[in-house]
Design the sequence.
């Protein structure tokens, strides 16, 4: 057996050699899909020469002689760096992911295919202005030219054993539809979940639990809403009931809501120019949702605009053109309604104000990789598709959603590249076809303005917050014309701010509606910091964006300490340690703060417990379990209850409110003990708020996760404060800039420019985002320059 060690060594050596060869082979395959960054390339479909100059971070400056060629160059750089991301976006919106990744994506495809966005994108493309269509066609040509320029397929397609399909002009509209999914309530869930509660609860109780606002409100116009009083025992008495727990939709413990923008007028800046700041918060993945760029067109129609682009589309989303800077936050207006259908006399019909109609059926074919295709039947009404996933007690529900209308998407945002004043910018914003946003802008002369960018529907006589029967009246009779939009230009105090919360009041609020806008605490914290000083420079905006002070939770800490008194901690080691750590808390959402995590957990547990307790009669009213929705304004009624402590709103589970609050502490202690064996002091906020910014393929390739994903950094920030941050949700970019002085601004974003893990730009800049560093708004000097020259298209005339 002496030969066995030698045989084993040879076998091991053979395995090592094979592993090395496989690694080298894989590396060569991946290298083949790296884009070319320097030299010259012939570009079919290009009219004149363009240059692509990338700086040390991979941020391109695209210089062209006309807007069409600039769109081509934009498609080219997006196709080089982000084609797989673009592909996922269009497939998600169209419900076509299963064709790429297999049957695992079928549930998501079924969910999205209900909206038939592939067909809607084709129709919308036909309705665009010729210039807009030309730009989309040029963008598609550029993206496809980028694919053709690669020596190999983007690496994701190698992993998936697939080939990328060409980009089409309509696909850019699908990318916009994907953002509607991200930013709107696409199935009118809010109306339906609230409706389930409204059917059972007395109106006074429902209004108390679902207020329009709280004392935390910080609107641009109007005052905070006080909220209705606590209903008396003659209206609602829970003392003889036992709490029923169940599914809760809405702002649960793990949900973070974000996005901030603001502007300061020239009278309050050191330069006399306005300052615009923005940090749009979205789900974070690798690569980042946005892609930085600078667009330059020389000649008569010259433009020079810098900011972030959305891969798959040819425009700057937010940024500055040297004259005007602009920024977005999601408006959370009411952009969808649940229509309660009334059956007609004949089978397969429903009633409308114009008489009975038959449902229109569409048979959607869903292709599945390595499996048979599936057919999905979508029934549509004059208002929109019928939900296929819910049994509402009063009948079937159709969805009326702005995204279903042809005018929901367009390329009007191109016009922002050349506006010169905020008045011009506001006029453009009101005609843009995007998910409606709070649009804030400022110009080089010092003016600032706010309005809504996106289409706003008019509404008939019905309650838009609950499912409504439109068979005889109601509905959406039309769309508001741009000159009737809510607007605020040059307010007296010289400051504007939005943070997903209520922005206005009265008739303007009725136009926008309540689509679940955020608690006003974050907006108020920003407003107060803007009011705290008289003059600003762009650099002064970064500390506001990074503000992680726990102002909302301060009063909950005080309540917690009052509950954990001497009697509560006597002989209770866990409670005593809980109190000690809360006493010594860092009053910020800081990674090393245990006290912050404990106060936050206490708040979340009390919120959940009280909501479930109050909703027990609702759950008892349905034979099957139902998912209920907690209001984002629930902080108002919750705080009233834990302070006034009405006995009649306490179920038999607890002898008094003090015991409910102590039970919340005890449940937290039990949950935190399951996380690790160490002491409670090790349960820091950073342990809970650790970055999970991942590549879409990472879960399927765990051995490559460290290579594909961003580092698992403990992150500061949380919901309901300016630095809104969760493990996989946060600022998709941060910037502040004065138009005309872009060199004095800053910008950073998570992950890097490139979506290719072998690229030096895959992670470049991510650490600056994590650490909140001031990095230049404009791209730096060129490190690589690629020149695209027109190539003769086969078959074209000489």
Sequence:
């Amino acid at each position: 057996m002496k030969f066995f060690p030698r045989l084993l060594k040879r076998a091991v050596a053979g395995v090592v050699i094979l592993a090395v060869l496989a690694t080298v082979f894989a590396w060569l395959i991946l290298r083949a899909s790296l884009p070319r960054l320097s030299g010259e390339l012939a570009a079919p479909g290009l009219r004149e020469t363009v240059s692509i100059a990338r700086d040390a971070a991979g941020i391109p400056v695209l210089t062209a002689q006309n807007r069409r060629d600039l769109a081509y160059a934009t498609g080219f750089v997006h196709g080089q760096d982000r084609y797989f991301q673009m592909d996922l976006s269009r497939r998600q919106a169209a419900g076509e992911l299963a064709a790429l990744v297999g049957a695992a994506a079928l549930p998501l495809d079924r969910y999205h295919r209900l909206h038939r966005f592939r067909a809607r994108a084709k129709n919308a493309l036909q309705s665009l202005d010729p210039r807009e269509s030309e730009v989309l066609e040029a963008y598609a040509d550029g993206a496809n030219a980028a694919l053709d320029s690669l020596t190999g397929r983007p690496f994701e397609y190698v992993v998936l054993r697939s080939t990328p399909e060409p980009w089409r002009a309509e696909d850019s509209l699908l990318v916009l539809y994907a953002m509607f999914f991200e930013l709107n309530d696409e199935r009118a869930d809010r109306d339906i979940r609230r409706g389930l509660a409204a059917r059972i609860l007395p109106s006074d109780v429902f209004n108390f639990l679902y207020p329009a606002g709280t004392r935390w409100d910080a609107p641009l116009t109007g005052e905070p809403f006080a909220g209705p009083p606590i209903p008396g025992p003659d209206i609602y008495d829970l003392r003889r009931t036992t709490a029923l727990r169940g599914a809760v939709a809405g702002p649960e413990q793990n949900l973070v809501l974000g996005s901030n923008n603001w502007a300061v007028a020239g009278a309050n800046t050191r330069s006399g120019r306005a300052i615009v700041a923005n940090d749009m918060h979205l789900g974070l993945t690798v690569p980042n949702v946005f892609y930085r760029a600078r667009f330059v067109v020389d000649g008569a129609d010259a433009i020079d605009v810098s900011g972030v682009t959305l891969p798959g589309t040819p425009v700057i989303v937010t940024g500055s053109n040297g004259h005007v800077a602009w920024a977005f936050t999601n408006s959370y207006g009411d952009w969808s309604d649940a229509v309660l259908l009334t059956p007609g006399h004949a089978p397969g019909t429903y009633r409308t104000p114009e008489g009975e109609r038959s449902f229109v059926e569409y048979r959607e074919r869903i292709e599945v990789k390595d499996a048979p295709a599936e057919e999905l039947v979508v029934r549509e009404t004059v208002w929109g598709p019928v939900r296929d996933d819910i049994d509402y007690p009063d009948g079937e529900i159709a969805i009326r959603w702005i995204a279903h209308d042809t005018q929901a998407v367009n390329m009007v945002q191109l016009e922002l590249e050349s506006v010169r004043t905020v008045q011009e910018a506001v006029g453009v914003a009101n005609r843009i076809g995007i998910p409606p946003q709070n649009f804030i802008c400022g110009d080089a002369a010092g003016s600032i303005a706010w309005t809504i960018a996106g289409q706003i529907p008019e509404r008939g006589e019905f309650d838009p917050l609950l499912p409504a029967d439109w068979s005889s009246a109601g509905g959406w009779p039309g769309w508001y014309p741009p000159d009737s939009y809510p607007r605020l230009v040059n307010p007296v105090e010289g400051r504007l701010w939005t943070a997903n919360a209520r922005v206005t009041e009265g008739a303007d609020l009725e136009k926008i509606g309540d689509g679940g806008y955020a608690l006003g605490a974050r907006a108020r914290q920003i407003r107060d910091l803007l009011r705290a000083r008289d003059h600003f420079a762009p650099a002064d905006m970064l500390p506001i964006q990074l503000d992680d002070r726990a102002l909302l939770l301060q009063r909950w800490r005080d309540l917690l300490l009052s509950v954990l008194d001497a009697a509560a901690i006597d002989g209770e080691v866990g409670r005593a340690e809980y109190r000690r750590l809360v006493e010594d808390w860092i009053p910020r959402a800081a990674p090393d703060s245990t006290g912050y995590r404990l106060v936050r957990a206490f708040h979340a547990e009390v919120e959940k417990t009280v909501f479930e307790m109050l909703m027990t009669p609702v759950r008892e009213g349905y034979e099957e379990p139902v998912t209920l929705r907690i209001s984002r304004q629930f902080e108002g009624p919750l705080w009233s209850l834990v302070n006034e402590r009405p006995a009649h709103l306490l179920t038999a589970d607890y002898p008094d409110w003090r015991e409910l609050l102590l039970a919340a502490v005890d449940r937290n202690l039990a949950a935190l003990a399951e996380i690790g064996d160490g002491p409670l002091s090790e349960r820091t906020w950073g342990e809970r708020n650790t970055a999970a910014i991942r590549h879409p393929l990472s879960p399927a390739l765990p051995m490559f996760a460290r290579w594909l994903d961003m580092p698992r950094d403990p992150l500061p920030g949380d919901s309901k404060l300016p630095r809104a941050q969760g493990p996989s949700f946060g600022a998709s970019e941060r910037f502040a800039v004065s138009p005309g002085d872009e060199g004095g601004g800053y910008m950073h974003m998570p992950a890097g420019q490139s979506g290719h893990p072998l690229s030096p730009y895959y992670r470049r800049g991510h650490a600056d985002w994590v650490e909140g560093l001031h990095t230049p708004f404009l791209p730096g000097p060129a490190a690589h320059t690629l020149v695209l020259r027109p190539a003769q298209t086969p078959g074209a005339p000489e």
